[in-house]
Every structure is written in structure tokens, then in C-alpha cells.
What we know:
This protein has 73 residues and is α+β, with helices and mostly antiparallel strands.
Amino acid sequence: MRKCRITVVSLPDRENLVAEISYDGFQFAEISQETGQLMIQFYRHPNKEFWGFSLEEFQKIVEKAKQKLIEIG
Length: 73
């Protein structure tokens, strides 16, 4: 998933850092720890009916985002 980007950010409406996961310039998920445990939220694709990824690659990118969030947060 070369077009994938992970950005750890501090949002004004959140207490803790968030890992935003984007593909081809569109955010499709974020990982946060607001409830004391890691949670993932998914977003709709702005131009298509749904997102579609290889399961293996998706698992890798989510794990990478999780690790970045834990290391920084």
C-alpha cells in the first residue's frame, strides 16, 4: 500500500493522540485511545461506495499505525 499514509496528530476535540490512516489522499480510518483501549474508526469513501484493500496489506498498515501511536503517545 504505497499510497497509504499514517499521521499521528493531536486533535482539538480529543484528549489523546490519534493515528490517522489515509490512502491516496483520503482518510479511511483512525486509531485512538480515548476509552483507555485502542479503538479503530472507519470513514466512508468520498467518491465510491466502499473501500477495498488486500486483507494482508490492510493488517500490516493497521499494525504499523498502532505501533506509531503507541511509540509517540
